[in-house]
Amino acid sequence: MSRDTNTPRNAACPPPPQGCAATAGEPCLSHGGTRVRHNFHRARTAAWETQRLAGDPAAKLVADAVTARTIRHGSHAAELLDGHGYAEQAERIRTAVSERNGLMSAKQAVALLLDAGQGGDD
C-alpha cells in the first residue's frame, strides 16, 4: 500500500467528539464505530498536517506565515525562505513559480516543500 504512505491515516484520530479515536493505520469510523468512513475526520487531518510540518522547518515557516496571513503568493514564500537562510528551498519555489507562469499560492509552496522532503522530484 505505497499510496497510503502520504495520508492522514498515518496519524491517530483524536477521541470523540472531534474524531473517532482510530489508531494510526486504521480507517476513521462513523455511526458509533459501526461504519468505515470514506474520508478522515478534520481533527485527524489537522494532526497529520502538524506531524508533517514538524519534520520540515522551511515548510513550517511558510505555513505559519500563511496562517498568520502575512504571505499569499509563492514568490512571497520564496522571499521569506531566502530571508531566513533557506536558499535552496527558496530557489525551488522560484523555479516552480516560473514554470507555472506565476500561478502558485503560498499554500501550494508549502505542499511542494513537503512533497520534496518526502523524496519527490519537485
Q: Any overview of this molecule?
A:
The protein starts with about 30 loop residues before the first strand and ends in a 5-residue tail after the last helix. The protein has helices at about 40-55, 55-65, 75-85, 85-100, 105-115, and strands at about 30, 35. Helix content is about 50%, strand content about 5%. Helix 2 runs antiparallel to helix 5, helix 3 (about 75-85) runs antiparallel to helix 4 and helix 3 packs across helix 5. A two-stranded antiparallel sheet has the order 1-2. The chain is mainly alpha-helical. The model has no long low-confidence stretch (mean pLDDT about 85).
Q: In whole angstroms, how far apart are the ends?
A: 22 Å
The topology string of helices and strands comes to EEHHHHH
What value does the average pLDDT take? 87
Helix content: 40-55%
Largest sheet: 2 strands, antiparallel
Structural class of the secondary elements?
mainly alpha
Shape label: elongated
Percentage beta strand: under 5%
For the CA atoms, what is the radius of gyration? 17 Å
The parts where pLDDT drops under 50 for at least 5 residues are none
Number of DSSP helical runs: 5
Overall number of strands: 2
- Adjacency order of strands in the biggest sheet: 1-2
